[in-house]
Amino acid sequence: MKSTELEEIRVKITELDSNLLELLAQRQQLTNYVAETKIKNQIPVRDHKREEQLLIRLIKQGKKHNLDAHYVTQIFHVILEDSVLNQQAMLAANANPGSTLSVNRVAFLGNKGTYSYLATQKYFSRRSGELIEIGCQSFAEIIKKVETNEADYAVLPIENTSSGSINEVYDQLQHTSLSVVGELTHPIQHTLLVNQETELSKIKTLYAHPQVFAQCSHFLAELGNVEVKPCDSSSAAMIKVAELNSNSVAAIGSEAGGNLYGLHAIKSNLANQKENHSRFFVVAREAVNVPLQVPAKTTLVMSTVQKPGALVDALVVLRDNNINMTKLESRPITGNPWEEMFYIDVEGNVQDGPMQEALEVLQAMARTFKVLGCYPNEEINPTKVAAVSALAD
Ligand SMILES: C=C(O[C@@H]1C=C(C(=O)O)C=C[C@H]1O)C(=O)O
Question: What is the CATH number of domain 97-188+277-284?
């Protein structure tokens, strides 16, 4: 194909892509109007029936154009997730007029380029107000910033699909009066970032956060003879590699983050598990009110009395009130050897009847008990298209 021919086709593709983007923006505007009517008429944000009908119609239509059903479904799952998250954010803002700030000062770990930085950008992109980023060197410093009103929010990683819970954050949450007001999950895609033209075999020293090394342990084991240097954050690792400017050093972190420091990726997908995601808590000084139209989660922290089956008794209370537990974590209590603090995430809103009943019973039976927060559930389960056979025609 002659290069002018290629150019002509590319011009058409560029134009088409920009039309696609315009249409997506128009769709988003319409779903914002939908959110406004849901606020007015107290209608739940999520409507699986409508989503299923929409997906079935689009899959059928796609088939006529030779577009694979899986491809169409994937694209629209992303569009629907974005639509639902935007609407949830709008309803939550409406239910908490006092918490809508013109400036959001947000504390997070490291500098520009860390996963916490990317998660912060993502979470606040759906919320009004200018974002002021406050990079910190430790989780304790992040929490302190909000406690002392130097920041309005903190974004804290709480768990990762490969390396599990981030204990240090749980331990910090034991002693704070801050509330969890939001959550988000963010894909963690580790890449090998370098400053100079080089190749894997030349790398002698690797810089990264210890959590990152844990998540990439298989890759490190395969690498063999490489010195591993832990850093306080992914951005600290990136800055180090940019400064050293050598072809024998590399950092592990996100490609988007590395690009901010002029680094480029020479290998991607370094994590042990392909599906590598981190979940973050967003915390603030004041708890938020989650409207009942928005699916909510509640995080509790409690210690039980020392008797056989005390934790089981607590979990039975959840079962009896038909409350689904999504996470259970235990952490030692500082100063009380062999005693544990339990962190429990459940689906439900503290304003719900069954939830209030369960919380009362739990509080009465626990030694210490606190609701760390009730916040919109941002884990959006994609609507499944059950009637696959109906799509055969
Ligand atoms: C936009 C709506 O809200 C949600 C998002 C949908 C969408 O983006 O198409 C569809 C159904 C709802 O889960 C709606 O209810 O129509």
Answer: 3.40.190.10
